[in-house]
Amino acid sequence: MGSADPEGGRLPPPVKPPDGGWGWIVLLGCFVITGFSYAFPKAVSVYFKELMKDFHVGYSDTAWISSIMLAMLYGTGPVCSIMVNQFGCRPVMLIGGLLASSGMILASFTTNIIELYLTAGVLTGLGMALNFQPSLIMLGTYFDKRRPLANGLAAAGSPVFLSSLSPLGQVLLEKFGWRGGFLIMGGLLLNCCTCGAVMRPLDVGMKRKKEKVQDKYEAKEMLPIGGKSEEGMSTTDGTKKAKKAKKKPKKGKKLLDFSIFSNRGFIIYTISKFILVLGLFVPPILLVNYAKDTGVPDTEAAFLLSIIGFIDIFARPACGMVAGLKWVRPHVAYLFSFSMLFNGLTDICSARASNYTGLVIFCVFFGISYGMVGALQFEVLMAIVGSQKFSSAIGLVLLIEAFAVLIGPPSAGRLVDALKNYEVIFYLAGSEVVLSALFLAMATYCCLNRGKKKEPPPEQNPSAGGGSDTEEAESDVQEAEEHSSDNHQLAHSTDNAVVVASEEANHVAEEQSREGGECPKGDGEVLARDGCNADQTTVERDSF
Hints:
This protein is mostly helical. Among the domains are: 16-202, MFS general substrate transporter like domains (Growth Hormone, Chain: A); 260-450, Up-down Bundle (Growth Hormone, Chain: A). It is built from 20 helices and no strands. α7 packs across α16 (356-385), α8 (157-188) crosses α14 and α12 (264-280) packs parallel to α17. The longest helix has 48 residues, at 469-516. It is globular, with a radius of gyration of 33 Å. The relative contact order is 0.12. This is MOT3 protein. It is a multi-pass membrane protein.
């Protein structure tokens, strides 16, 4: 994500995150991107009835549009990681914003459902994926101490945009039809390009360039003017060129770092997240139909999702603030386990809710627990792998989650069709979430906390996107040693030039003293001879 060092041919070491400043603008951009990525596939559902009428298809056919968007968001994670590691976050996000917008604009001119799958589904989904992942990477680059709070605030974009885009889509549908609505929604997605433009990488190369130029300038100022000094400078430059020629070329950065699979914490997190996704999204998907089957009117049943979204807006930043506390942050994995356990028990306890009041209570607690999970999921991953390997880690995690997304909700829908009983589905979904919470907590305690006492602490990778940690560390040490050696040789050449010039001046002064018997005058007067004024010689020696 940083620019390459032009002289060394490698990425410079990362700068300390500012935890503020321009980072707040980056946080705002991440807030918008997160809102579009998670809320847009759900907000498109308001157009499904009109699409069913125009294309003469069923609800399951139109529902594939949202499913394809989510599949692209999760399944293209490794592709996003490779592009970010190769080109950086800002270019990838600009391309993603253009793809997302062009997908919806082209969808407004489609004539069949297959074209909608390719435009609104594949193209727009890919564009949002190319925005979502780099925005999280940049957020981890700009924040360290305040990173839990930043993640919580960014995650709040999902419920905020969900509560905004759905009513907006309904208004656009009534006034302009679904084609006009798709066209305007495509224009709104161009804001992703604006968010990508503000993702300014931290400039780390300018300071080192200025220091090198200043060192060369000071070295030239220290050397006296003369043939010997020029000879010393040419010798030093020749030595530097020879060392640069002998220096081994730096290996390129890995496009996708699979070494994170050697991290036990990452393996535990991935398994736990896969189990979690199997049941996490099932209750909100089936909630409205479940309420209708219990006799709740349609308008009141739809309002249940609004309750979850409203609670979620405040739960995510609040949980981020709690996770940022000094005594909580070292144990953020356990807080994440608690939030999953809270969510699973909420599903299990509400399985027998038979009236509207019970469903409202379920929505309140589900909104709190769901917001906690959303605020902590990426914070825990950053804490496990570090921000330098986060670009590869999140891509692989999202790919694995894509399989769970394709397994969990569709399987729950088939069970509902077969059993005609929502109670069993809520029990099953809650059990999966509870199992993921227990697995994460127990595996973290048994495999990680106990292992820390036996294993040495892992080395930190100074680069920002994969590559070999050991090779980069050795290269940094080698460069530091060579830089120190060059400075020492330059100083030594300077001293030699000064000594040579002084000896020549003394030799000339000695010859003139023998021939004329007078005290030498000029810049060469260094040593006192017979017949010279001692005070004058002392002053001249001091001035020299």
